[in-house]
Amino acid sequence: MLTVNNLDVFYGQIQALYGVSLTVAEHEAVAVLGANGAGKSTLIKAIMGWETPRAGEISFAGERINGLTPWERVSRGIAIAPEGGRVFRDLSVTENLHLGAYLQPDVAIRRQMDVVFDLFPVLAERRTQIAKTLSGGEQQMLAIARALMSQPKLLLIDEASMGLAPILVERVFEVINNLREHGVGFLLVEQNAFVALDVVDRAYVLENGHIVLEGAPDDLREDARVKAAYLGG
What is the maximum alpha-carbon separation in the chain? Predict the structure, then answer.
């Protein structure tokens, strides 16, 4: 469904990604693991159209999307839950969700609202609550739920565990693990390899802008480099 081929991204004269290639099949869950500064968020921004690659190609559902605007990519079926659970803090839960569905007709919005509230019961209970009064974990769930309102084929999840207490990380990743039951594939970029490897089919390891490893979760857990860098081995 998603193909990233030989992607180079620069910030001015500083190169952030070097020939990065990866794929995500339909309904597949894939992680990109890496330390802070490895280039994970740059990769997500390039896929969303927020950064323009200097070289390489991004294709989605068989269509080259390099030249498309972010909203055109959303209309094709890509959505993002941004780093840090960024929500519209002064709006209610329901208002945040409606903003995630701005390209959808009213009938689809009502139907998808039911789907989202089924997936996130805590948000259903707090539907009239102002977003800034939610806990950090609830705000992260709201960011994911808002992205789902566009009925994406592929959800990009940027650092879902960032800034959350361990118990909240566990709750958020339980929800992420349930996404595939709703037919949503996702690309998860994450520092926390412990939780990421439990919810994906495959994973890549990104270091200093380079993909250095790729494999199934069980294989990467046993890799000495992954153990040393990410699992405390």
Answer: 51
Distance CA 10, CA 8 (A): 7
Backbone dihedral angles phi then psi of residue 156, each to the nearest 5 degrees? -95, 125
Alpha carbon distance 103, 45 (integer Å): 20
Strand ranges across the sheet with 29-33: 78-81, 154-158, 185-190, 29-33, 202-207, 210-215
Q: Cα–chain-centroid distance for residue 20?
A: 17
CATH no. for residue 48?
3.40.50.300
Residue matched to tokens 């990104």: 206
Render the burial of 112-135: b for 16+ CB within 10 Å, e for the rest. Answer: bbeebbebbebbbebeeeebeebe
Buried b (16+ CB within 10 A) or exposed e, 48-73: bbebebeebebebeeeebeebeeeeb
Q: What is the pLDDT of residues 217-233, one digit of tens each?
A: 999 988 888 877 776 65
pTM value?
0.89
Edge-first strand listing for the sheet containing 55-60: 14-24, 2-11, 55-60, 63-64
Q: What is the DSSP letter of 99?
A: H
Domain enclosing residue 221, as ranges: 2-230
Q: How many structural domains is the chain composed of?
A: 1
Q: Is 214 helix (H, G, I), strand (E, B) or coil?
A: strand
Name residue 136's amino acid.
Answer: G
Reported as a single tens digit per residue, the pLDDT across 84-139 is: 668 899 999 999 999 888 777 778 888 888 888 988 899 999 999 999 999 888 88
42's enclosing H/E stretch is helix 40-48
